[in-house]
What does this fold into?
Amino acid sequence: MNMNMKTPKLRRIAHLDMDAFYASVELLRYPQLKGLPVVIGGGRRAQDAAMMQGADTTALHKIPIHQFPLLAGYTGRGVITTATYAARQFGIGSAMGLMKAAKLCPQAILLPVDFARYRHFSKTFKSIITEIAPVMEDRGVDEVYLDFTDVPGGQREGGRVLARLIQKTIFDQTGLTCSVGVAPNKLLAKMASEFNKPNGIAIVLEDDLQRVIWPLACRKINGVGPKADDKLHQLGIQTIGELAQHDVDWLIDHFGQKTGAWLFDAAHGHDNRPVVTQSEPVSISRETTFERDLHAVRDKAELGVIFTQLCEQVAADLQRKGYQGKTIGIKLRFDDFKCVTRDQTLIDCTADAKQIRQAAGQCLKRAPLKQALRLLGVRVANLCKTPSSSNNIENMPLAPVQQAQAAINKIAVADQLF
DNA sequence: TCTGGGGTCCTAGGACCC
DNA sequence: TCTGGGGTCCTAGGACCC
It folds into this structure.
């Protein structure tokens, strides 16, 4: 044994979650709304409301509070994308219908969603992060996983020092706060990032499993949703600790090979998934919920227009992103909220709106169309890169060697910070 | 007062091939 | 001719996540 050997590096994985991201980004331009119940979401009416606010974007912070549109009297099928903590006091939450929310808190301010703006801030905070910790997995607009293991400072205080640096840098440069959990793996890091929200850091070590993780509800495991949780309850299992008391075979008997084995691992804090820094999309789709339910026969013309538009949007998305797809599919949601899908695999890949429309039309013919529809969707899967777009430097993934060099460069930047 | 939009992954049956 | 098994692709549905 080499007596000079340093303490071995521990695997340190971070999960970083922006705090109330959309709402916080809105508050940056409307600071006068701080502390008030604000709801973001909705469809057309919210768009109108945004237009009513006028075009002077340089003085948004001066718009008096009473000029903001209220939730009261909202009609339509929009749902809440996010709500500020003040609004949540009224029992309002994500994915709730806006009409229901209007009953609970009519005085809440309704802001339209502004995805372009959120995406902009998303890019900003992610590029701040990769300057410090380059091994980042994108988990949507407001979340990432980071591998701290080999980052300078990533081992100090179990990752707390690096987490603090990232938190502070993001706040200094954007005014936004986030919460970070650092743990031996993604599963535990994800749970940990919730512990001290908002603007919190939580460090979980291997030995903390029984004390910190086992008392939590099974629902806190990322991947255990309402259905699995129900089933667990029926089996008399509430907490992760209780889940851990059952052996693998018992879990496999009740949940099947894959899920059973996975639940067992999760309960024991085991998760060896790597932090994945890049990935290819599996499918690209567009869907829309109609303002009112439509009938395939009675509303044929209207439906046809929407159908064609969806195909054109998907085609445009594919082209813009440099993909083609071989499997074309549709999705229908009926007035009773039941769903069906139909799909068809072509011989060749396409990103052409007409071809997509044609194939999707064939799918539609195979679907039951007696019931009124509330949603129609078009999906393209089985994707491959568009040959010409691989010449596009911007879309071209870095070769492994360049990638490694880029990562080293970024680590060098982080090095100077310690 | 019913419940958005864009995704991923898993399961399971059938076709088809070796 | 019968039987079986494995692998892959296609299709439909469903759970789950952000």
The longest helix of chain A spans residues 300-321. Residues 179 and 200 of chain A are 5 Å apart (CA to CA). DSSP finds 15 helices and twelve strands in chain A.
